[in-house]
UniProtKB/TrEMBL annotation:
First and last residue of the signal peptide: none
Record region (Disordered): 530-559
Similarity field: Belongs to the TCP-1 chaperonin family.
PANTHER family assigned: CHAPERONIN
Entry annotated with the keyword ATP-binding: yes
Keyword GTP-binding: no
Record organism: Oryza punctata (Red rice)
Record keywords: ATP-binding, Chaperone, Cytoplasm, Nucleotide-binding
UniProt protein name: T-complex protein 1 subunit gamma
Residue stretches spanning the membrane: none
Coiled-coil regions listed in the entry: none
Functional summary from the UniProt entry: Molecular chaperone; assists the folding of proteins upon ATP hydrolysis. Known to play a role, in vitro, in the folding of actin and tubulin.
Pfam short name (any one): Cpn60_TCP1
Length: 559
């Protein structure tokens, strides 16, 4: 009996689908995900209202944000959602395009699966199509001068024109360019690196108008000075000291007992604590600071000494905020007050000021000389609006960062995809063997982006697509595409509808590689045990007593 047991367990917990059925299921799941967010592509796109896990409401047309909130059971659908997340982390834009393109790539492959083409053949053709598509991108890309603000503005504007904040024109584009140029670091050879997560903080303050939003030449933190009555709330050209140690008496690592024999010993102990804090403050005050900021606690006695010397203090600041202030004003974060040097004092800030917005106080360290970190202050009517504006701003900053990193432009409005499609159709005649047909299908799949744009504009899709294909025949007129707002066929250079090279290249790579990966799956094996129905007995089954007749059916173990 013992030999049968493992087999029975396996049969119970392993479900297996295989072959063409799995391919069909994967393709259907991928198409379903693509169809969910297809309507959010382009300037005339629809918004989605989502209920998140906490019961809050999210209103957005950002592909990644929508898919993040979905709870899908099918593994292929889950892997499609991962694509959007990867795209968002890598280049910050094109999250919808990548899903639509991957869905279309799988859709056109279905016909070949039905005709018993081997998935490896289809994947080989797709990989060849990807290499040729990237070669076309290199050919039609034009360099851009990152110091030309008008060109940069046009590029960022066209990338966020498809978003909710597109209606506010230059505002978000201006904020994104100002923030990324402020926080950019030169790596040499004309390349600039921008760490958006570390050195650009987006602070959302409800109230006011969106037009009041601005990029601060410095840092803003949601803190007030420790003793508002005693300490100054406005200091011009402050000397700033940043600490990440507590200015209070050291507590024992774990439970500490002190045994006092005499009554005077208690007084001595208190005196020692006071002297220790006084010496800490004396070491700091030696450098004549105007503002002391620490990440840890600040005892009442330390507040008294600092306040007496006319020094303002802020305590329990986040590590990330402290790093930003250090980058903005040129200070160095110090671990122990004994190690303080004159070079650690930040003198780059022009103004320290505490302001009140609504019920909360915010401290500003602004007008810095050469800040390498900044804060974007967003104002708006409600939290929902501010959250959507922040998502759009993140995309805009990512686009600006991509341009600083790889200063090349491509036409937007589906023109790039149409050019790639036309070029691949031409090349398909020179592809030999059975790979020719999947290669040609991949060329057709690229047309999904302009077709979706037209559908979202509410135009006659077939007529307009035929006109566009005619203009792009033989790979000519690479810059002719669709103006997503009006639906006209125009030259993208004239309308300044551009795309970043990094975003387009990443979209093509991610979509095709993901399609190949899903096509290569021929088995889905689930090792999840079925949950017991509620009310079912959880008592273990009684062991069965072996009868004499069972011995004949027993599988004998060979010696």
């Amino acid at each position: 009996m013992a030999l049968h047991a493992p087999v029975l367990v396996l049969k119970d917990s392993l479900k297996r689908e295989s072959g063409t059925k799995v391919h069909h299921a994967n393709i259907q799941a991928a198409k379903a995900v693509a169809d969910i967010i297809r309507t959010t592509l382009g300037p005339r796109s629809m918004l989605k209202m989502l209920l998140d896990a906490a019961g809050g409401i999210v209103v957005t047309n950002d592909g990644n944000c929508i898919l993040r909130e979905l709870d899908l059971a099918h593994p292929a659908a889950k892997s499609m959602i991962e694509l959007s997340r990867t795209q968002d982390e890598e280049v910050g834009d094109g999250t919808t395009s990548v899903i639509v393109l991957a869905g279309e790539m799988l859709h056109v492959a279905q016909a070949f699966i039905d005709k018993n083409y081997h998935p490896t053949v289809i994947c080989r053709a797709y990989t060849k199509a990807l290499d040729d598509a990237l070669a076309v991108l290199d050919k039609i890309a034009i360099p851009v001068d990152v110091d030309d603000r008008v060109a940069m503005l046009g590029l960022v504007k066209s990338s966020i024109g498809t978003k909710f904040t597109g209606q506010f024109g230059d505002l978000i584009a201006d904020l994104a360019i100002d923030a990324t140029t402020t926080a950019g670091v030169d790596l040499g050879q004309g390349i600039r690196e921008v760490d958006i997560k570390k050195y650009i903080k987006v602070e959302k303050v409800p109230g006011g108008q969106l037009e009041d939003s601005k990029v601060l030449k410095g840092v803003m933190i949601n803190k007030d000075v420790v003793a508002p009555g005693k300490m100054r709330r406005k200091i011009v050209n402050p000397r700033i000291i940043l600490l990440d140690c507590p200015l209070e008496y050291k507590k024992g690592e774990n439970q500490t007992n002190a045994e006092l024999m005499n009554e005077e010993d208690w007084q001595v102990m208190l005196q020692m604590e006071e002297e220790y804090i006084e010496s800490l403050c004396a070491q700091i005050l030696k450098f004549k600071p105007d503002l002391v900021i620490t990440e840890k606690g600040l005892s009442d006695l330390a507040v008294h000494y600092l306040g007496k010397a006319g020094v303002s203090a802020i305590r329990r600041l986040r590590k990330t905020d402290n790093n930003r202030i250090a980058k903005a004003c040129g200070a160095v974060i110090v671990n122990r007050p004994e190690e303080l040097q004159e070079s650690d004092v930040g003198t780059g800030a022009g103004l320290f000021e505490v302001k009140k917005f609504g019920d909360e106080f915010f401290a500003f360290v602004v007008d810095c000389k050469d800040p390498k970190a900044c804060t974007v202050l967003l104002r708006g009517a409600s939290k929902d609006v501010l959250n959507e504006v922040e998502r759009n701003l993140q995309d805009a900053m990512s686009v600006a960062r991509n341009i600083l990193k790889n200063p090349k432009l491509l036409p937007g409005g589906g023109a790039t995809e149409l050019t790639v499609s036309a070029t691949l159709k031409q090349k398909s005649s020179s592809v030999e063997g059975v790979e020719k047909w999947p290669y040609e299908a991949a060329a057709l799949a690229f047309e999904a982006i302009p077709r979706t744009l037209l559908q979202n504009c509410g135009l006659n899709v077939i007529r307009t697509m035929t006109q566009l294909q005619g203009k792009h025949a033989n790979g000519e007129n690479a810059w002719v595409g669709i103006d997503g707002s009006s639906g006209d066929i125009v030259d993208m250079k004239e309308r300044k509808i551009w795309d970043s090279y990094s975003v387009k290249a990443q979209t093509f790579k991610t979509a095709i590689e993901a399609a190949c990966m899903l096509l290569r799956i021929d088995d889905i094996v689930s090792g999840i045990k079925k949950k017991q129905a509620p009310g079912a007995s959880s008592a273990p089954k009684q062991p069965q007593i072996e009868q004499e007749g069972d011995a004949d059916n027993e599988q004998m173990i060979p010696e």
